[in-house]
Specification:
Strand content: under 5%
Mean pLDDT: 82
Low-confidence stretches: none
Structural class: mainly alpha
Number of domains: 2
Distance between the termini: 53 Å
């Protein structure tokens, strides 16, 4: 064992956290420098243990907890903002998809007579939309799952 390798054990041995490995014990017995390092570390550890620990300042716990709550709240605000932006983007994509789908079917979305058009040609529109229903159902399911996860995360965070 080298002095560098033995030095890795000095602090742990001095604190009593670890037993001396046989090769480290043999090295420290043979190497005056490493044995001196161990004695100094043990002396320093003894001095630190003998020294009384200072008392925590008044209001320490309440200040730390307040800081943790503020930090957590800020992080939640960032996550909420990102999630809300993603939901708005998803809603805009769905709206744009519906706009394009209705435009390709020949349904004037922006006219005032759209309701009359829908009631008169409901069967024709249903036949044209039927092949795309799985896509719409998937998008609706995705939004429902995202909202469910959001609700679950908000509820779990409140606990």
């Amino acid at each position: 064992m080298t002095c560098e390798r033995a030095a890795e054990w000095v602090e742990a041995i001095a604190e009593g956290d670890a037993d001396i490995p046989p090769d480290a014990a043999a090295h420290m017995a043979a190497c005056a420098s490493c044995a001196q390092s161990l004695r100094e570390a043990q002396r320093l550890d003894g001095l630190l243990r003998a020294r009384p620990a200072p008392a925590a300042p008044a209001q320490f716990t309440s200040r730390v907890m307040s800081h943790i709550r503020r930090t957590s709240w800020r992080r939640e605000q960032v996550v909420d903002a990102i999630f809300n932006a993603a939901m708005i983007a998803a809603a805009l994509l769905v709206a744009a998809g519906l706009w394009i789908a209705f435009g390709r079917m020949g349904v004037p979305v922006s006219s005032r007579d759209a309701l009359d058009l829908f009631s008169a040609g409901l069967l024709t529109a249903a036949q044209k939309v039927a092949p795309s229903l799985p896509v719409y159902a998937g998008a609706t399911g995705l939004i429902a799952v995202a909202l469910g996860v959001w609700w679950w995360a908000s509820d779990s965070a409140a606990l």
